[in-house]
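Example record

Each entry pairs one chain with its bound ligand, fe (ii) ion.
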Amino acid sequence: MTTTELTSSLISTLPGHYYTDAELFQLEQQRVFEEMWFCAVRAADLDRPGAFRTVSVGRESVVVSRNRAGEVRAFLNVCRHRGARLCTEEQGQVRRSFKCPYHAWTYDLDGGLVAAPNLASMPDVDRAAQGLIRVHVREWLGYVWVCLADEPPSFTETVEDVVAQRLGTAESITNYGVDGLALGRRISYDVRANWKLVIENFMECYHCGTIHPELTEVLPEFADGYAAQYYVGHGAEFGSEVEGFTVDGSAGFERLDGVTEDQDRRYYAITVPPQVFINLVPDHVIVHRMFPIAVDRTLIECDWLYTPGIIESGADISRSVELFDRVNRQDFDACERCQPAMASRAYRAGGVLVPVEHHIGEFHTWLADRLADTVQ
Ligand code: FES
Ligand SMILES: [Fe+2]
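Structure tokens for the complex follow.
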């Protein structure tokens, strides 16, 4: 299924069942989220050896942790003995090993099987072969990205280049020093909508004039409906009276060290398929990670990142957090308003995209290709 040309102004969206069909969602989990690089956890959240987080990646639970040398490791959260879930908490800290709560098979921080009741009486057991199943990991922008595929796609091509292509150059993102920033605030949203509605919403700004009064005050050009993602290298400019990217346009903080004159007083938004949104403003960076957990439910973790000095000083970040928190709630409300209608007969053949939304059609084609290419 690809998008169909209706007129030069209107092209069709995906049909409604793409947002409601549980089997199709399973296929997406398998062919998209379990095959691509997935931004799983913030590296700084794993602050010492044995600190761990468990995250849903596609249909799997994954444990992300640090070994004794401080290197990030990720494993499928499945005991090799009889399959019990190894870590049941969302986050925690072990001393030197993960011990299964069922029969006490115990794995070191590199996943190797190191102990089990009666293991000594089973000398033929190959402890290496019975270790936890490792998952590929990469660290970038201060986040741990994991890939469940046996042969992961190129991280450079599928992640770094996507950011560079949107911003025009590879250095543009480097200027923000994202991996050196500190977490100022994290807000989790439980959105009752299909993950694609969330992406599509993020990709367009046709709705900005209607639902984002605070954002369009700060970024007046958004009132025209052109998303910042529409043009390569374009960042939406702050209004002339606006002092900072805050809920009331009041002053924010000093601009980040590497941010250039060209990037100052501008907002850049980047979608890294399939589940990351990056928002760059001169004094902070906002990163959204999406976790699709059901065909009609998506968890979103949003991090507001500032220089460590700002966070350590206890500076008031509430006005800058509030701007995008409001934007998020306005966006997610809109997605939730659309979700029930996806099952309506009115949407059987889908809806339409206006010209300022046509780039969403490329996302649909991308998705359809991924699903089609990989179906056996
Ligand atoms: S299932 Fe984990 S030790 Fe038995
Ligand atoms: Fe929006």
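The CA atoms of residues 206 and 225 lie 4 Å apart.
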